[in-house]
Give the backbone structure.
Amino acid sequence: MAEGAKSPLPIVPYHARRGEAGTIPLLSLAGYFGVMVASSLANPARLARKMRRTALFGLIAGAVIVGAFLRSRLEGRSLPGPGLAVVILGVGILAVSIRMLLPSYPQSVERRLARLDAMAEEQRRAYLGRLFRKQLLVVLVVLLIEVPIGALSWSFVEWRAWIVAAIATTALLVTLLVALIIRRPGSPPTEVA
């Protein structure tokens, strides 16, 4: 870099960036990546555009998966268990992508981020705590559904790896959410002496 030239990305510590207007500290990755600028995530319109762009790829991937499934069904071929799991994933990707591509989605994202940004720190912590608890409840219900289905399907040897993977992934998600709830979102990390 030439002498006197300024760095294109300012390296500002995370704690110094907290006071910037329009930033959302809970969504900032600046604490992990010293050169990431918080304003890229603080702009709700830009974030919504990025999410919609990602949803476009999800729409294509989901449509390809569902299309391949429909074609195999029309040709009279049966679908093995792991293939069915991929089809269910493809349908989920397709549904979420369609939702993200609806015209009302960017306004919804902007409203949610504006509401989060307008909250006081204590309100934000309480809101995120409730959000994580709701997510934990949903994931626990999914786990309670997965376990009996896995037990009933265990006799299909080719499905066993998928059953274990699904239950292990859900259990890992439960562990992550419990850790986030215990840590209390938005609280500063404790220092080890």
